[in-house]
From TrEMBL, chains A, B:
SUPFAM superfamilies: GntR ligand-binding domain-like, Winged helix' DNA-binding domain. One of its GO terms (molecular function) is DNA-binding transcription factor activity. CDD domains: WHTH_GntR (cd07377). This is GntR family transcriptional regulator. Residues 10-77 form the HTH gntR-type domain. Keywords: DNA-binding, Transcription, Transcription regulation. PROSITE patterns: HTH_GNTR.
Length: 225, 225
DNA sequence: CCTACCATACTACCATACAAGTATGGTAGT
DNA sequence: ACTACCATACTTGTATGGTAGTATGGTAGG
């Protein structure tokens, strides 16, 4: 484990955890991959203890599945969990954007606007990875502006399943322009305090994530439960 | 660690985890209590390793706070987290009970009814602890009947903070009759598929949890952040 | 050729020893 | 009396050896 990385994360266990989580959510470690404490301890150059600690945390979030005395593997994407995550996000994001339409800090509104500018940039440069991050940031800023940061963090738990399907979908059909347009309209609705409009767009925005799930299950059957 | 308990939970680590979690949420271990791996390993008669594993899991849920090289203590109740948990539950429970009004399995509806009967029983017997469990069960059945079990589980994370305040409140003012009446009305609304009515009662039901927070902070200041 | 068995090489789980950071109380020096 | 220092007894973090359960491949027996 690199020293800089350790300092950033505070402990070896946290560093391994963050590294693995990033790789799992980005599908760098595809669903079904077997992990094993020993193997990871060798690649990260730490003992099995911090690796085991990271496995415990990942299992708690449903990102890996630990089978006692048999092995540990990256959890398959659960279609039901994907739909539930979408459901949760729809309800909470609709409620939050209504709050945002009532009152939203000016500086956070500015953050949204600069985020949109960066989105345009990333689309022009065909930088899908950056665009995905900006998408996440856009919604996170909405939550934070409404003082609902903890809610956003809680959503992230189940979001792991949803996000992995979103990445799969974007592999097959990068439809960034459509997403950007929705983001822009939501920004304007918040700025002009049009709650009903904002909620409606958000509802459609969230519905996008689920429509193509059957297609993905057919194209990547080995990734799904 | 008792052998029966170990068999029930699968591993020593899980057993310690479940035990501590139950004690924390029930305020048997009050907020601020220092824990220490060594101490717990002695009381549970296991080594530090499974105890440490349980600490990691509890920290992941925000139930304990681990300060490296200094100690571990039961996390104080965070007022902001309590309000956010209430917010999350309100949005999700409103959406779920609307779904329930559209369609709800007959056997689960029967479960709700028998749950209500048990609630009456527990109120007569002044069994607050049992009543609290039944309250939780009532809402869990609603989620499960709508195939939103994962959503319920996710809520539980943040619910730890909310539930601890609810217990404090019920220590000072056991108002079980009022809660029972709301539960009964929600049951009838679901049965008669009156979505708007059900949502309205649920909204009031969720609002109860937050009103007396300032009073509790004044009465138990050492429990809050 | 097929089947039952067993040695072997994995796995996660647990106990233990050591390392490193921190709080605390006593003591020497001013 | 007060302050600076340090030994000591804590704490969590990490490394490692051993245990028990499981999958697998080869082998002996039918």
């Amino acid at each position: 484990m690199d020293e800089r990385m350790l300092q950033k994360s505070g402990s070896a266990g946290s560093a391994v955890y963050q590294h693995l989580k990033q790789q799992i959510v980005s599908l760098d470690l595809p669903p079904g991959t077997t992990l094993s404490e020993k193997e990871m301890s060798l690649t990260f150059q730490v003992s099995r203890t911090p690796v085991r600690e990271s496995f415990v945390r990942l299992a708690q979030e449903g990102l890996v599945l630990v089978l006692p005395q048999r092995g540990t593997r990256v959890s398959l994407i659960d279609s039901d969990m994907v739909e539930e995550a979408r459901f949760m996000r729809e309800q909470l994001e609709k409620a939050v954007i209504r709050l945002a339409c009532e009152s939203f800090p000016a500086d956070r509104l500015a953050d949204l606007e600069s985020n949109l500018t960066e989105q345009q940039h990333s689309i022009q440069q065909r930088d899908g990875k950056r665009m995905f991050e900006l998408d996440e940031d856009f919604h996170r800023i909405l939550f934070e502006g409404c003082r609902k940061r903890g809610t956003w963090n809680t959503i992230q738990q189940m979001n792991a399943h949803l996000n992995r399907t979103r990445i799969l979908w974007l592999w097959t059909d990068p439809h960034w322009e459509h997403l950007y347009e929705q983001h822009r309209q939501m920004f304007l609705a918040v700025k002009q305090q049009q709650a009903d409009l904002a909620e409606q767009i958000m509802k459609e925005h969230m519905s996008l994530n689920i429509a193509n799930l059957p297609v993905l299950k057919e194209r990547y059957p080995e990734y799904f439960k």
